[in-house]
Amino acid sequence: MSFEPVLTKNVGVKDSQKLSVYVERGGYSSLPKAFAMKPDELTDLVKASGLRGRGGAGFSAGMKWTFLPKDHPGPIYMAVNFDESEPGTFKDRYLCDHDPHQILEGIIVSSYATRATVAYIFIRGEFHLQAKILQKAVDEAYEAGYFGKNIQGSGYDLECYVHRGAGAYICGEETGMLEALEGKRGWPRIKPPFPAIEGAFGKPTVVNNVETLCCVPHIIHNGADWFTSIGTEKSAGPKLYGISGHVNKPGVYELPLGVTCRDLIEKYAGGMRNGKKCKGAIPGGVSMGVLHADELDCPLDFDGPGQRGCMGLGTAGVIVMDEDTCMVSALRNIVHFFKHESCGQCTPCREGSGWMLKTLDRILAGEGKKDDLDNMIELCDAQGSMPGKTICGLADGTAWAAKNFIQKYREEFEAKIESASAVAV
Amino acid sequence: MAWQIVDRLKGTPDSADKVVTDEMRQKIEAEFAKYPTKQAVLLTSLHMVQNKYKQISDQAIRELAEIHEISPGEVLDTLSFYDMYSREKLGKNLIGVCVSLSCDICGCKDLMKKVKDKLNIGPRETTEDGKFTLIPMECIGACEMAPAILMNEDLHKIESVEQLDDLIDKTA
User: Fold this and answer.
1) pLDDT tens digit string along A203-246?
2) Residue A117: which domain range?
3) Does A293 share its domain with A352?
4) Among the partner residues B40, B99, B144, nearest to A181 by beta-carbon distance
């Protein structure tokens, strides 16, 4: 099947970051089309396209917009989630590096559709270069009349500001991000109220991921049917897959949703490094769990990984591990990440991740106990101690990853513990 | 935490040795127009102070509290949450080694060891001359460059420990 890149079509074009180049290549031309429509018509179009959020949750973008209160006196805020922090994920950085104006065009039309009058782009603090690229693009766009009052004579006003985070994974959780936007600790809020009702500064707020917003101008241009013709029935559209780890050509690949993990590794990422065999692959950020080597024919759409015990597609940031990888160490790395990034509000998450890290450290130090694995599974199970008992999904991600690794590589975990017991005796 | 802070901080708002310079203050105040509250600019202000002084001192906390019209406790509450701010003075250059999964399986431990061997500093330690601090970082969003480091504000794909060696020499 031939597939023309959509979101990455400007990658490799000289000076693709510049507004003039972007406009020359058809950029910002969705604006007149959008402004000719009513905001609700635009929302319906996005709903019809089946566009699902690219930030990890995969919720219908158009549907999310309809949760905003009708006839609100304003202001309504657009909060752009560019906190990209899930290990294995670097697609939004790639979009910003190569085509920042595409992000801005997406912001303008999506803000118009949701009647937002101020857009805050929340970019993670470690993206120093990207914050500069983005700020420059915003400045250029203001100068050209794409932001500010009466955009392109439409009568629509929109301000756009770049807001830098300061190093906290949890600020990618939408309400944690809103707290950080307000200058506070990035502590996720108890929901409801959801951001659409009470978001930033107590006002209705739309929160969308960078890649999600980038899809919107293309949908306006080419229509909902075009979008649904790409990908699979329930997972429409093009998708940026980030692939890293033990492959020959790590990077970002734009493909229709539904490519198999095996094809992604073999056909696009140049196969396994040093001729090694694949032992497993994280489908979409470490919180999603892991696909065993036997499961690589899994289509990477919104349903595929979930049917194989993973939590879902997540961010489609694939991490490939070869046969020499110690899965106990890999899990230890993941749990360490979550322990470090747990915001500390909820006891099951704060303490649970700590217990698990201690247990894994003990196993790796050769002091594992026979019931360690069952205890960890109990901690991670739906009826156990961590998932579903916390304000946000961080604990669920930790638990899911741990349960998945232990269940799919149980023999390796047991061997590690048994070899330790043998030594101890 | 908030209720503990006021008496324990060193420095006073009217201290002669102001940490937030007039220029910084103007920049901060120019940001206020973008938000409905002054507190919303706090992360930006903290970045400014951290960049200039490599730390957020007690004096800075007091001054920022006054500028943002919040209590010193609220400034501390926010800053203590984020990895990029430090109350301890960090080195002039920050070697941020990504330690998350992609970088781990591609050899970040070798990079940590190289820094230890060359500069004799472990995680979050600073060289005696104050030139470098080693910061282990959680995923920096550059997994295709694994093992990746953030030398101050610049991303690098490190293909060999010798390359890291050169980079440290050049940065110093």
Assistant:
1) 999 999 999 999 999 999 999 999 999 999 999 999 999 999 99
2) 19-228
3) no
4) B40
